[in-house]
TrEMBL record:
It comes from Kryptobacter tengchongensis. The keyword Iron-sulfur applies. PROSITE patterns: 4FE4S_FER_1, 4FE4S_FER_2. Residues 8-37, 44-74 form the 4Fe-4S ferredoxin-type domain. This is 2-oxoglutarate ferredoxin oxidoreductase subunit delta.
Amino acid sequence: MQVTLQKAFIKINKEQCKGCTLCIETCPVNVLKVSDKFNSRGYHYAEYIGDGCTGCGVCFYACPEPGAITVYKRGAVIDEEILASFN
């Protein structure tokens, strides 16, 4: 089943993140942070704090790792499973 997003959010693939913090530094609304946890490669990965994303995509363009960040904009139609995995 598909749902229409009422607010924007991002998903970060923690295994692809190398902890460079470029996404955190460039986020205009400061909704990203460095995790206290490590990924399987030993990096402190970036995390979305869970609210406040505008869907601007600046983090996506700043990230040097293709596919590490996915931006979901308000009004987008996505599969319910994607939304459930975020919550």
